[in-house]
């Protein structure tokens, strides 16, 4: 255990976050996301038993978001015609607001299959057992100043 570090952040996850450089991306995926196949060329860390909001809050407590792009946080758009509710997106916005002065303005959306393609280039995928639908979030790492 470390002081000031969320106990959700495992040693393996902290190591991976430290290894990431500016503009590297990570995906925090819900339980339906094909993490192992999408992440077969990268690093996948399983965090079963945890939800995406819990992990997002813990990661953003130590992870700087990229300030050189308008939307360093990307969510998967709903498939056109899909009437599924996405209240988890409101949770994401609140968590981002707590850690980045841009708040919800730092969040963008991309089409489902484009999200999958971009996730294939992510340095890290954190696979969760989140049950909410469309609860996948991609973060682009910034720099630590000072």
Automatic annotation (TrEMBL):
Protein's UniProt keywords contain Isomerase: yes
Keywords on record: Isomerase
Domain of life of the source: Bacteria
The keyword Isomerase appears for this protein: yes
An annotated GO BP: fucose metabolic process
Pfam families linked to this entry: RbsD_FucU
Catalytic activity: beta-D-ribopyranose = beta-D-ribofuranose; alpha-L-fucose = beta-L-fucose
Molecular function via GO: D-ribose pyranase activity; fucose binding; L-fucose mutarotase activity
PANTHER family assigned to the protein according to its UniProt record, in alphabetical order: FUCOSE MUTAROTASE (PTHR31690)
The name this protein goes by in its record: Fucose isomerase
Organism listed in the record: Clostridium porci
């Amino acid at each position: 255990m470390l002081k000031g570090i969320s106990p959700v952040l495992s040693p393996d996850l902290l190591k991976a976050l430290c290894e990431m450089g500016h503009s590297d991306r990570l995906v925090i995926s819900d339980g339906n996301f094909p993490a192992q196949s999408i992440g077969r060329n990268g690093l996948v860390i399983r965090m079963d038993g945890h939800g995406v909001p819990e992990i997002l809050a813990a990661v953003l407590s130590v992870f700087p978001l990229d300030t050189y792009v308008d939307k360093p946080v990307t969510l998967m758009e709903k498939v056109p015609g899909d009437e599924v509710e996405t209240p988890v997106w409101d949770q994401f916005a609140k968590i981002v607001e707590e850690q980045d002065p841009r708040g919800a303005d730092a969040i963008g959306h991309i089409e489902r299959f484009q999200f999958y393609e971009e996730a294939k280039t992510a340095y890290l995928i954190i696979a969760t057992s989140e049950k909410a639908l469309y609860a996948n979030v991609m973060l682009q790492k910034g720099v630590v100043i000072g």
